[in-house]
């Protein structure tokens, strides 16, 4: 018998921004299990259960008040433009169970910071609000240059589309990359942008008649099992190493080496989830060469070993675990 869906409560505040408000329902609602069962139940609530105005030209009515937060496994605070009563929000959050995962999208981080939840912890917010955030909440370890920050039970994201990245990251953390990739395809969005990627990429679209690094990235993805060097990529792209490195940072927000490692990790995760290949072979196919190297990179990225990752996210291994506990 399948466990009940993970319950997500989205708190809509006065002046809610409709796009970000709808992200959790869209992404978590697209995450499905092996029998196409929903993996998440998403509830939207307001502090008193009444309607709230949005930042657009309409209001929204909800079916739940803040008591929905007490039964949630995950809480999401989207951004808003209205004023908020700190005392009311403190009362709303007071009923949250210990260990509940709490996420903010964009300036929703101001609510978490005002409640004291981010004191001494890393977080991010929309780059345009960083100066104001720092002045208001100097005890928060703000990183204004990343798409999202995962600090275990507290997660914060930058503006707008970074909320999509954060929700997909959570699906991936909960259920593995295969489920997250399917959810991304259902929503027609990129399946992965690294949380450490810069919020603002100086030139996200190549100049006309300039193919940029896209062709060499596609070429590298077909050869991840090979020991590709920065010089190999530069030669294939017809650029100097210096120009290639600059173009990569402009177009994908990271260095070629970091991008290549990210793709190798994603390949290894996919194989661990979907195949019964030995870890040594997966390490070779992903380009890490040895199981030791794969173990080091996977642990650095996710904090787990290949065996532990497979045990968590491989469907058959999950079934074996359930049977062994029965």
Strand order of the largest sheet: 2-1-5-6-10-9
Q: pLDDT below 50 for ≥5 consecutive residues: which ranges?
A: 200-209, 319-326
- One letter per element, helices H and strands E, the order comes to EHEEEEHEHEHEEEHHHHHHHHHH
Which structural class fits the helix and strand makeup?
A: alpha/beta
Helix content: 40-55%
How many H/I helical runs?
14
Oligomeric category: single chain
How would a crystallographer describe the biggest sheet? 6 strands, mixed
Strand content: 5-15%
Q: What is the CA-CA span between the terminal residues?
A: 12 Å
Global shape: globular
Mean pLDDT equals 87
Radius of gyration (CA) equals 21 Å
Counting DSSP E segments of at least 2 residues, the number of strands comes to 10
């Amino acid at each position: 018998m399948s466990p009940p869906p993970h319950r997500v409560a989205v708190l809509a505040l006065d002046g809610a921004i409709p796009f970000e408000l709808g992200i959790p329902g869209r992404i978590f609602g697209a995450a499905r299990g092996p029998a196409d069962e929903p993996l998440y139940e998403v509830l939207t609530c307001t502090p008193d259960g009444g309607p709230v105005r949005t930042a657009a030209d309409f209001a929204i009515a909800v079916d739940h008040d803040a008591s929905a937060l007490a039964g949630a496994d995950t809480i999401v605070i989207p951004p808003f433009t209205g004023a908020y009563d700190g005392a009311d929000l403190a009362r709303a959050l007071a009923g949250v169970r210990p260990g509940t995962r709490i996420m903010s999208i964009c300036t929703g981080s101001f609510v978490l910071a005002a409640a004291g939840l981010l004191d001494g912890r890393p977080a991010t917010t929309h780059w345009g609000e960083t100066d104001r955030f720092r002045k208001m909440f100097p005890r928060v370890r703000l990183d204004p240059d990343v798409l999202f920050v995962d600090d275990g039970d507290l997660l914060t994201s930058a503006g707008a589309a970074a909320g999509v990245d954060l929700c997909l990251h959570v699906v991936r953390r909960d259920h593995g990359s295969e489920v997250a990739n399917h959810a991304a395809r259902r929503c027609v969005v990129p399946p992965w942008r690294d949380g450490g990627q810069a919020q603002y990429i100086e030139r996200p679209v190549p100049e006309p008649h300039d193919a940029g690094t896209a062709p060499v990235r596609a070429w590298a993805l077909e050869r991840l099992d090979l020991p590709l060097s920065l010089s190999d990529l530069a030669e294939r792209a017809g650029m100097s190493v210096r120009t290639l490195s600059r173009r990569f940072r402009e177009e994908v927000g990271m260095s070629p080496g970091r991008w290549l490692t990210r793709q190798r990790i994603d390949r290894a995760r996919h194989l661990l989830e979907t195949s019964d290949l030995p870890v040594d072979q997966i390490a070779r196919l992903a380009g890490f060469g040895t199981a030791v190297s794969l173990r080091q990179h996977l642990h650095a990225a996710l904090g787990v070993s290949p065996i532990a990752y497979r045990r968590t996210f491989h469907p058959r291994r999950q079934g074996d675990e359930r049977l062994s506990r029965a």
